[in-house]
Write a structure and sequence with these properties.
Blueprint: H1 31-44, H2 48-61
Length: 73
């Protein structure tokens, strides 16, 4: 290998994979929900965090919205 490399003439470019990077998020989930995804993750051989991410990504891609009917008094 060379003792010195000259990087002054290099052209920089943006990371093409930047859109695939993950953002750390803190969420508070019910224990039953976490247990459900953990058990499903064991069956599928995936980390449960990845499984939750895949589920949420699928919801976002297909524009799924939660349907709730709140009981009025």
């Amino acid at each position: 290998m060379r003792d010195h490399y000259d990087f002054s003439n290099m052209k920089g470019r943006k990371n093409p994979f930047i859109k695939y990077l993950k953002q750390p998020v803190t969420m508070r989930l019910d224990r039953d929900t976490v247990a459900y995804f953990k058990s499903m993750a064991v069956e599928m051989g995936l980390p449960y965090q990845s499984l939750i991410n895949l589920y949420l990504r699928d919801c976002a891609i297909h524009h799924r919205k939660l349907k709730l009917d709140w009981a009025s008094e």
